[in-house]
Design goal:
Elements lengths: L1 E7 L7 H15 L6 E7 L4 H8 L3 E4 L8 H17 L4 E4 L2 H14 L3 E5 L7 H8 L4 E4 L2 H7 L8 E3 L17 H7 L8 E5 L8 H10 L8 E5 L9 H11 L6 E5 L4 H6 L3 E4 L8 H8 L4 E4 L15 E3 L4 H13 L1 H15 L4 H17 L17
Parallel strand pairs: 1-2, 1-4, 2-3, 4-5, 5-6, 6-7, 8-9, 8-11, 9-10, 11-12, 12-13
Helix pairs in contact: 1-14, 3-4, 4-5, 8-12, 11-13, 12-13
Length: about 400
């Protein structure tokens, strides 16, 4: 039995990073046979995610971290995490994001256990990337090949390993959800006519304003099409939602776009769609892309590093230049104009998504941490557990 302490900076479900942790713990709980790894989670802030984790059978505690600019508070948090690691008899610690490693890395050094952290972004050399990389780690897990390549350019060099994002294929199983017309009725949407859905937090880098402009460009060729944005505001950009609504008004598509806000039934919203769009700039992962693909939905995705590891243009989805609303609209229009094309892309997408199950992630992380806790330092180029994703 390998005991792994996970340090999670956030206490609420904001996006794919938090969902991936929930999916991992859910898949781990569903595994047949005796567990080979046991997870306990320390949150650096309180929130509803704490109870979600406890409901999945994992120990969860809250160790409030405060702000990095408060050195005394940081020292107290590190000491508290070290005590928690000792009390759980942790064999290793995994920080679920960069901020977590700034606390968990020093705590692991105090206790004398190996530390790893998960890169869910594309490190670009910003101060946070440099700071977290400076904290000793036995292993850096990366959400994709692009993220791993970016992390390997950081100094000091740390051993890296790709561990691809994962999706709960039971939750995103089209056979377990109602057909699209029934899903629309359940959500209060028009059961007829084309429906284009985007799932994203309301942040500028997510490209929601590009989606709004694309909707306007599709008004003439597809007058019956309607658009939905599923996602809530982000504290860092409080003015962006208002900008989006004013943009939709100015472009004459306010009556064609529904702002659904943050939802806990994302699979049903995606199931209602004819097309799912992802328009982010410099996206490192794109969990919602794989979720939509698992449902057999044709996806139109901004051509950036992370998504291109899942989507092959014309084979299992369509790509558009990030920020190019005209090209995004044209690619959406191709699917709306050709149901056979949409069906072909969706079928191929569903097959592709099978490679990224949370069960597989649970198995590979269990193997990784068993080796990390029981042996010497990880090799500089360990085997990537998810393997290179073949299209």
């Amino acid at each position: 039995m390998t005991r792994v302490g996970i340090v999670m900076p956030l206490g609420e479900l904001r996006g794919g990073v938090e969902r991936m942790l929930v999916n991992l713990l859910r898949a781990h709980a569903r595994r047949d046979g005796p567990p080979h790894v046991r997870y306990a989670v320390a949150f650096l802030e309180d929130g509803p995610l704490v109870e979600t984790v406890r409901a999945l059978g994992a120990e969860a505690v809250v160790v409030p971290a405060g702000r990095l600019r408060q050195p005394a508070r940081v020292a107290r948090t590190v000491a508290a995490l070290a005590r928690w690691l000792r009390s759980t008899r942790a064999d290793a610690v995994l920080s679920w994001a960069a901020k977590g490693h700034l606390y968990a890395g020093p705590a692991a050094l105090r206790v004398g256990v190996p530390a790893a952290w998960y890169v869910h972004s594309l490190p670009d050399g910003a101060w946070m990337d440099r700071l977290v990389t400076a904290v000793p780690a036995r292993l850096v897990l990366c959400c994709g090949r692009s993220a791993e390549a970016a992390q390997r350019r950081m100094w000091p060099r740390r051993p890296t390993q790709t561990a691809y994002i994962a999706v709960d294929l039971d939750e995103f199983d089209p056979d377990r959800l109602p057909p699209a017309p029934a899903a629309r009725r359940a959500l209060g949407l028009d059961p007829d006519g084309p429906l284009v859905v985007m799932v994203a937090r309301l942040q500028r880098w997510k490209g929601v304003h590009v989606f709004v402009e694309a909707a306007a460009r599709l008004r003439a060729p597809h007058p019956a099409a309607r658009f939905v944005v599923v996602g809530g505001p982000h504290w860092a950009e409080p003015d962006y939602p208002g900008e989006l609504e004013r943009q939709a008004e100015a472009l004459g598509v306010a009556d064609r776009i529904r702002w659904a806000g943050l939802q806990d039934n994302v699979p049903l919203w995606m199931q209602a769609a004819d097309v799912v769009v992802h328009a982010s700039f410099d996206e490192p992962t794109g969990t919602v892309i794989v979720e939509a693909m698992a449902l057999g939905k044709p996806v139109v995705v901004a051509r950036s590093a992370g998504p291109m590891e899942f989507v092959e243009d014309g084979a299992n989805g369509l790509l558009a230049t990030p920020g190019d609303a005209a090209e995004l609209a044209a690619q959406i229009g191709r699917v709306l104009a050709s149901p056979p094309l949409g069906a072909r892309l969706g079928a191929a997408a569903c097959l592709r998504a099978r490679r990224f199950s949370t069960v597989r992630l649970a198995d590979t992380l269990a193997e990784t941490f068993a080796g990390l806790a029981g042996g010497p330092a990880a090799p500089r180029r360990p085997r990537a557990p998810a393997g290179p994703p073949a299209h």
